Amino acid sequence: MSLAFLLPAGFAALAALALPLLLHLARRHEQKPTDFAALRWLRQKPKPRHRIRFDEWPLLLLRLLLLALLALWLARPVLSGLDDTRPWIVVVPGVEAAVAQAQAKEPRMRLHWLASGFPALEEPAPSGTPAIGSLLRQLDAELPPGVALTVLVPATLQGADAERPALSRTVTWKIVEGAMQATPAAAAAPLALVVRHEADNERGLRYLRAAARAWQPTNATGTAAVEVGTTGAPLPAPSHPLVWLAPGPVPVPVVQWISAGGTALLARESTLDGVAMTSVAWRDADGAPLVEAAVHGQGRVLRFTRPLRPDAMPALVEADFPRRLRALFDAPVVPPTRVPAGDYAPVGGGAAYPVAPRDLQPWLALLIALLVLVERWMATRRTRSAAP
Predict the structure, then answer these.
(1) Which of 3, 73, 209, 285 lies deepest, with the highest CB count within 10 Å?
(2) What pTM, to 2 d.p., does this model score?
(3) How far apart (Å, rounded) are the C-alpha atoms in residues 345 and 23?
(4) Which helix (H) or strand (E) holds 153?
């Protein structure tokens, strides 16, 4: 255990200790002499020398202590060496608490769930799928060096990332009975395409209609594959993709719709001022770009680089055109997180982090506040004589 000060310059405030001393010297009890007639004829004797005398020693000492503690608080004291070195057992949700408690060979072991905040095992099992790798790395960084760590896991893990955790300590990895709740895969909802085109100009529309119908399940009924309208028709919700086939500048309402989170696919002839295409979302077999992309506000802008004619864009009549078009609007694919527990055991070689020392400032602030109350009571009590 060692005491350190993060800001030793704060001890310069100790110079303020002279203030209570001066106040008590300047405000001592005043002694007023009383003249007696019979004493006026007596011979004057030399006055005794004045001695430095302080009144109300308890109050003076308390004020000196307050100023000393304030200087100590300003120096920001921290205490290290009080780390809890008890062994840890962390349990992945899906393992029964009774099974985990049976693994505790010593009563001093600390048992926690491997979840956000590392709740105690006595609390109910956390819901949801924990990020196992991230939580193990966090726990390894927060525990003091040398603390033994045991992890209890079921045979199959959910919520694993793509890299085995590399920790700074050797971990006891135990596979026990239990099963994590599998996260159901979200079914891809049928995507309805919204197309807005110039009046009396339906060039390329039939290719988009055919692709949108190919997205629909074979048994889907009552769901429109594509919703077509002219440029004056209302815009869809930002959750539906929009294909804008009108040439010229994109209207302001459409720009605002994109900024609010919508995804719009523009024709080659459409222009959007202030937005520069920064990436390529679709290339042909020769590597030439077919669709460019950019981010605008909270949404995305896509734009064909060629007219929607088979002679200019042969991909329109290829078999995988519906799939490639759908990929422009699909969300990024979530990587798999299911892995056998035996293949996810942590490895060594991770960086070790020093344990942060314990900050004593909050405790000193509480002590100073209590002493201030005591000082005010002593300075204002009625039984006190006239003094500082």
Answers:
(1) 73
(2) 0.50
(3) 69
(4) strand 149-153
